Task: inverse folding
């Protein structure tokens, strides 16, 4: 077995949203059983599990696994902040590629609403290292970008509106607006941190998502006639030191981390960005998505604004981004976020994305960054 | 007039001036092997990986690399009407980029402007000492 013999054989997820009456285990069971059903296998056939969550506390993941039955399988907690789910996916892929197991499950869940609304919002100015909100941090990127490139806040608003409108087409999306969202409406929403407004930011969500991976041979055997969703690459990196590195306070390290990680993923896959049909990125804030157009290689440095103006990253454009609404609309509970990206990528590559279908989608890219910080990129391809 | 003793919120990050003629400085490290400077202090050089750093002070001046104004009270602020606050990154001449709260309103800042290290009093402890944290303030008008 090698990495490129591995396939995503099943995906499942809950809708993302705020669910005060549902537990982590309840959400995890729904997503996991949906993924097992999609794969067409029993939990008894799962050889190893990687369980991703940020907020649940010690043991939460192993306990949630009991929802599927007690089979003795090895299970490991994975936590890499916002990147958690996609990192659990990487672990599952490599567990199969290494021959350690035949079928692996990557399961992510979280109740970010409980974490945030429960009041654990950081010690504020009572600590040397906690003065900054994620919204403030990514707004620092936005202000610098506007200074260097003449980017206008309307560019960010157009990206946000696109993702809201993609969310309207996605049954799993938290935000499903009942009317077409315009950049003007995004701009008119409450200002969070210069220049970012509320509608340019992701919601606080609960939810779960799951992917089952195994060999391509098993994928073909289980579902003859269904396109096989193969793995081309799955890469994780932390920051590489460069002069001016900010050690104290930042949420996520240098933006170049995304460029380096994407480059490594393209190398592993033996493809380039021009081969990608549909992409998913860490659009927790709309201005991040603009940066990733360049950092993931979809346009030359300085051309991201042009991509926005042309509508190239909307459904129907040259390279649609975040067809399920992304973090901004589909939502961002934390642990399951990356597995929701894998869910949508698999549907796109199987031609099952309904109104959101990217015509002839052949290769999908999923990217996330996580605080600390890390970046992870996976590339999947239809066979 | 006697002022209250000032103590840093956490030791090891910045100096607290003993008199009115002194300015606070950041406590950093310099790698004796490759010359790179760091804030905050560290034992192993993040660039060349040698365990050969020495203590240095950095600042008090730098240039504003980027900033934002957050339209919400600072985390931990007890009053909802406390207003917003500014945050930025300051490039020190020695190399490190420092992220910090800034003093000033939403129109006080311009990328590239000169900034100086400053101390902000957060509260008093039980002994009556003032607990202070560092921030940067503009040395010029933004407009």
Result:
């Amino acid at each position: 077995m090698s990495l490129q013999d591995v396939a995503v054989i099943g995906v499942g997820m809950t809708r993302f949203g705020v669910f005060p009456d549902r537990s982590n285990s309840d959400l995890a069971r729904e997503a996991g059983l949906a993924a097992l059903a999609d794969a067409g296998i029993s939990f008894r056939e799962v050889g190893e599990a990687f369980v991703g969550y940020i907020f649940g506390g010690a043991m939460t993941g192993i306990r949630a696994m009991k929802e599927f039955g007690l089979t003795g399988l090895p299970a490991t907690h994975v936590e890499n902040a916002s990147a958690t789910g996609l990192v659990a996916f990487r672990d599952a892929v490599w567990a199969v590629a290494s021959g350690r197991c035949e079928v692996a499950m990557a399961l992510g869940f979280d109740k970010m609403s409980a974490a945030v609304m429960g009041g654990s919002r950081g010690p504020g100015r009572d600590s040397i290292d906690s003065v900054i909100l994620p919204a403030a941090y990514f707004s620092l990127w936005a202000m610098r970008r506007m200074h260097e490139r003449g980017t206008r806040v309307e560019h960010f608003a157009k990206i946000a509106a696109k993702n809201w409108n993609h969310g309207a087409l996605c049954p799993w999306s938290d935000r499903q607006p009942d009317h077409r969202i315009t950049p003007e409406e995004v701009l008119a929403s409450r200002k969070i941190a210069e220049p970012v407004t509320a509608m340019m930011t992701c919601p606080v969500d609960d939810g779960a998502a799951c992917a089952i991976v195994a060999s391509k041979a098993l994928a073909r055997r289980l579902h003859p006639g269904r396109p096989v969703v193969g793995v081309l690459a799955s890469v994780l990196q932390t920051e590489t030191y460069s002069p001016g590195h900010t050690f104290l306070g930042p949420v996520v390290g240098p933006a170049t981390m995304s460029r380096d990680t994407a480059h490594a993923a393209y190398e592993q896959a033996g493809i380039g960005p021009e081969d990608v049909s549909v992409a998913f990125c860490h659009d927790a804030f709309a201005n991040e998505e603009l940066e990733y157009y360049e950092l993931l290689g979809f346009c030359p440095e300085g051309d991201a604004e042009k991509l926005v103006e042309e509508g190239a990253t909307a459904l129907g454009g040259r390279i649609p981004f975040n067809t399920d609404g992304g973090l901004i609309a589909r939502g961002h509970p934390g642990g399951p976020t990356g597995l929701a990206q894998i869910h949508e990528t698999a549907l796109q590559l199987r031609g099952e994305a309904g109104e959101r279908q990217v015509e002839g989608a052949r290769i999908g890219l999923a990217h996330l960054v996580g605080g600390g910080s890390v970046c992870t990129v996976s590339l999947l391809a239809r066979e | 007039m006697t002022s209250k003793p000032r103590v840093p919120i956490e030791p090891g990050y910045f100096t607290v001036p003993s008199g009115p003629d002194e300015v606070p400085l950041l406590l950093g490290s310099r790698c004796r092997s490759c010359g790179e400077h760091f804030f905050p202090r560290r034992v192993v050089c993040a660039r060349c990986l040698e365990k050969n750093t020495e203590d240095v002070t950095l600042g008090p001046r730098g240039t504003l690399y980027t900033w934002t104004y957050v339209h919400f009270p600072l985390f931990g602020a007890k009053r909802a009407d406390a207003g917003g606050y500014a945050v930025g990154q300051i490039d020190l001449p020695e190399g490190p980029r420092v992220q910090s709260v800034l003093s000033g309103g939403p129109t006080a800042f311009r990328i590239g402007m000169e900034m100086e290290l400053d101390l902000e009093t957060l509260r008093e402890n039980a002994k009556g000492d003032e607990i202070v944290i560092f921030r940067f303030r503009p040395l010029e008008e933004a407009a």
Notes: Residues 17-58 of chain B form one domain.
